[in-house]
Amino acid sequence: MLALPPSKDVELFDNVPLVRLHDEAEHLTAFLKALYDPRCLPWKKHDINTVRTVEGILLLANKYEADHLRERIVDLLERDWPSELSFWDINEAERIAKEESGEFETEELMPDPCAAIRLARKCNVPSILPAALYHLSRIQGISDCHLPDSLKKTFSGEIRGQTADFSLLSTEDSRCLLVGRDAILHLFEHYLKKAHNEVWSSIKRSVLNHDNCQRFSWRFEDKLRLEVLRYNSDPLSVMKRDLNSDEVRNLAELPCDSCLEDFFSSLNENRINFWDKLPSLFMLDPQ
């Protein structure tokens, strides 16, 4: 990083070779501290200050090829914005537990996804984009980056108290968000019908009476659809259903075990496929 060619004309400071860097002093200070003592990096999940703390460090880690430092910061970011569904589910459970505990201010529940998206673009961390964009898609707000800056800053989105500063998004990322929101609803509708068809296929193969199964399929499908429309387009949450939950077992007209298992198996399988399709839904380049 600071290697100098042998020369008699090297500038000295207190008889030590002087290297002039043109990086921002704040970024360089944070970078050198992290380089020699990585313990100064953030370590808590869901810390609202993580992006602001690591941005300058990550910029210089890229510039000066401090790969070990970059990898450590990317790991930090991926804990908040994971690329695997199982880790997303863990984060969601933690967020909901924090919210229900009442011990945290609403804006402390989750980092701003817009800040994460901007950092990902600026510092080449594409792995966090699908999760950040999906979370942002659940937040209702202004995403038209052609609004005047003075006006954009007066708007924010909200999901159970979660806010996002849409003014941080580029025009391209605003477009990805809008297209993704629409694609999410269309794909969710497709998966609902697919789960419904699984039940109908099971009914057609049986000689038993499945009136309850038919009614269940239609009613539960409508219930899930309504939840997505009501709760800010969050199919991943809506499709996460437990076959043995009280919600299902207390239904007045419970379908047969076979049809119930077919419906929920299809729902869970489609949920995994849904997560895997997030990059294409938001028009992200293959990683």
Question: What features would you describe in this structure?
Answer:
- With 287 residues, the protein is mostly helical.
- It folds into two domains: 12-169, no CATH class; 181-280.
- Helices cover 58% and strands 3% of the residues.
- It has a two-stranded antiparallel ribbon. It has a two-stranded antiparallel ribbon with strand order 3-4.
- The longest helix is centred in the middle third of the chain and has 34 residues, at 171-204.
- Mean pLDDT is 80; it is low at 142-160.
Number of strands: 4
Helix % is: 55-70%
Morphology call: elongated
Mean pLDDT: 80
Widest β-sheet, arrangement of strands: 1-2
Number of domains: 2
Order of helices and strands: EEHHHHHHHEEHHHHHH
SSE topology:
Elements: E1 12-13, E2 16-17, H1 25-36, H2 50-63, H3 67-80, H4 85-101, H5 113-123, H6 129-137, H7 149-152, E3 157-159, E4 162-164, H8 171-204, H9 211-230, H10 235-238, H11 246-249, H12 257-276, H13 278-281
Could you provide a short overview of the structure?
The chain has helices at residues 25-36, 50-63, 67-80, 85-101, 113-123, 129-137, 149-152, 171-204, 211-230, 235-238, 246-249, 257-276, 278-281, and strands at residues 12-13, 16-17, 157-159, 162-164. With 287 residues, the chain is mostly helical. The protein folds into 2 domains: 12-169, no CATH class; 181-280.
Descriptive terms for the model:
13 helices; single chain; 287 residues; two-stranded antiparallel sheet; 3% strand; mainly alpha
